[in-house]
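TODO from last week: model Insulinase family protein.
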Amino acid sequence: MTQVTHRELLPGVRLTAVQTNKFKSNLLSVTLLAPLDARTASANALLPYVLRRGTQRHPDMESLSAALDELYGGAIEPAIRKKGEAQCIGFVGSFLDDAYALDDTNILEQAAGLMGEVLLCPAMEDGGFRKEYVEGERSNLVDRIQAQVNEKRAYSLLRLTQEMCAGEPYGVDRLGDGKSAAAITADGLWERYRHLLAHAPVELYYCGSADADRVAAALSAALEGLPRAEELEEPDHSVQESAGRDQPRLVTEALDVTQGKLALGFRTGGACVWEEDYPDLLVFDALYGGTPTSKLFLNVREKLSLCYFASSVLEKFKGIMAVASGIEFGNYEKAKAEILAQLDSCRDGAMEDWELESARRAVVSTLRATMDAQGRLEDYWLGQAVAGLEEPPQALEARVEAVTREQVVAVAQKMELDTIYFLKGKEG
């Protein structure tokens, strides 16, 4: 049996505890929420990596790794995520569940303490971060940002987002940009760190066999030194319902590639995680392009062979759907026309019963799989926390099961093409 509880431990510090005997490990996470902002995104993204380099008690990675090894090979990893217009910065830790430890060892309290130490007690010099750590991790961050262009499918979606949401916080990448990252100094990063500790809402998560009271006590003790300001900086979320232009915007970029990448960005007409038609949106996405039985996959890719791949993905916090495809350069017009034609078929209700049922089953299967994977479950509850929601996967599953053909058609009819991004070859 699984029991989920939510409670506030400190001002702006909220705990979601999932008590279950399903897993042999505990998952702990601590996440600071910050508004996405081009001026601070890179510094925010750098912080967890610098903090993970060492603490006052364990001043280097070797010492910190030894402390984790003593906890039956535990792990604490930096995590930088983007949920709508919130940048989620922190750590995800995995530790053996107490039920499987020898000699009745209380791993939970030690693990929570170590995570609190990593967050609150960094290795220091001259009243701030160690410059060596900042410079090394800054270089790594710049490399990660620059390397994004190497994965062309993800890069095309990144560029689509940047162009489609230019001027909106959502247009900022979770890692920020290379120029801002390269300009980060140890002193500036320390100021940003102290500001976040005081002003950022904090989401804590636990999944394991311990009861919620014990978890709350362990994490409250671990975060005892966390400074809290009277006013916290809550990330805001804006959903733009329509494209706001007469014709979709076309952005073309040429790189040294042999396969074109065509990405189409749609506004969902306001359909998003906060709206009643959110389950309808999920089923529509699965039917249109989100699964191997979708219209894009079966028709545009398999039947017509216009794409090497074609799929859709939702940003549920922003009211955006993106279609990603890989094409021959010369198939740009044909592929674009057929991708839009498949959307029109959804709008017209031209779907077989088996297509609709396959879409429902795919969404339900994904939700059930979430319940069986600790990492995915943690990410689900972080998303719910960011959205200010408490609906569990089982309740959302029940709503998905009730989605009708008419509701899918209604959501499809709200879709509006906003931006087209085409990555072509330099010779094309």
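Done. DSSP finds 15 helices and 13 strands in the chain.
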